[in-house]
Amino acid sequence: MDFVLRLWTGTCEHTRDRLSAHLEGALRGREAKRVLRHLARCPHCREALRSLARTVDGLGSLGRADALSPAQPSVAGAVVDRIHRPAGP
Question: Can you tell me the distance from the alpha carbon of 45 to that of 38, in angstroms, rounded to the nearest whole number?
Fold first, then answer.
């Protein structure tokens, strides 16, 4: 029975490999349903999804807060700039 349940809901490893795609709305059909079924049953994967969502939101706000210059039109550039910027007022 456990084997059938894993086929229906997927494993934690299978689900965590797809959390980013799930968060972006890129999963479709059976794959999307399988991830949703797993998340409904697994508090550990739900927490991993919440953590990923917070990280994505934080990175997104980094770009908005830094008002990216035309020379650095990416969130990655903003992260690098912030790392290299001296701390202080």
Answer: 8
Q: How far apart are CA 80 and CA 26, in angstroms?
A: 28
User: Which contacts of 48-54 are long-range, i.e. CB under 8 A and separated by 24 or more positions?
Assistant: 48/16, 48/19, 49/19, 49/22, 49/23, 52/19, 52/20, 52/23, 53/23
Q: What percentage of the chain carries pLDDT values higher than 70? A: 73
9 in Cβ contact with 38 (< 8 Å): yes
Residue 71 banded pLDDT, cuts 50, 70, 90: low
CA distances from 20 to 3, 53, 65, 72 (A): 25, 9, 23, 25
pLDDT tens readout for residues 22-54:
999 999 999 999 999 999 999 999 999 999 999
